[in-house]
Design brief:
- The protein is mainly beta.
- Helices cover 8% and strands 44% of the residues.
- The chain contains one helix and twelve strands, in the order ββββββββββββα.
- Strands 1-9-6-11-4 form a five-stranded antiparallel beta sheet, with no helix packed on it. Strands 8-7-10-5-12 form a five-stranded antiparallel beta sheet. The protein has a two-stranded antiparallel sheet with strand order 2-3.
- It starts with a strand and ends with a helix.
- Bound molecules: dTDP-4-keto-6-deoxyglucose.
- DTDP-4-keto-6-deoxyglucose binds next to strand 4, strand 5 and strand 6.
Length: 136
């Protein structure tokens, strides 16, 4: 699977007082951080995503509840079940991703390498496959 992998974050603390997780650029997050955004109150039967990015790098962390992320690099597909804030999924350029299986509590945070630029989105699977095949 190209440009997509799971990251386990170190937790500081204990059961008595709780846990803290720190995300720093170029440490736990493998790029310079330019933007953080999150979705919440997504209806449980919603499906989001359905795009890839030309250049953007992101780490997605489910802070609360659960969500499933399906990632596809044009050849291989993998599904990550995000159900804890102590892990994240790195999604680099040219990874088609879809999110579903939301729960009422789901808060999905993204840490991103760039500001929001619609021009960076590939929102058509046909175009995505054309670009993947051009790269080969
Ligand atoms: C991604 C997945 C994981 C903004 O105005 N600013 C922003 O920073 C973002 C991320 C979105 N928007 C606007 C663009 C759309 O009009 O918010 C609207 C919803 O965005 P979208 O349909 O792309 O939302 P998702 O949840 O399908 O995708 C989002 C990110 O856009 C995307 O980069 O990788 O989460």
């Amino acid at each position: 699977m190209k440009n997509c992998y799971l990251i386990n974050f170190d937790e500081i603390g204990n059961d008595e007082n709780g846990y803290l997780i720190a995300l720093e650029e170029n440490k736990q997050i493998p790029f310079d951080i330019k933007r953080v955004y999150y979705t919440h109150r997504v209806p449980c039967d919603s499906k989001r995503g359905f795009h890839a990015h030309h250049n953007l790098e992101q780490v997605l962390v489910c802070l609360s509840g659960k969500v499933i992320m399906k990632c596809f690099d044009g050849s291989d597909e993998i599904e990550y079940s995000l159900d804890s804030p102590n892990k994240g999924v790195y999604i680099g350029p040219m990874v088609w991703h879809e999110m579903y299986g939301y729960t009422e509590e789901t808060v999905l945070m993204a840490v991103a390498s760039d500001l929001y630029k619609e021009v960076d989105y590939i929102r058509s699977m046909d175009l995505f496959m054309e670009l993947v095949n051009d790269e080969k």
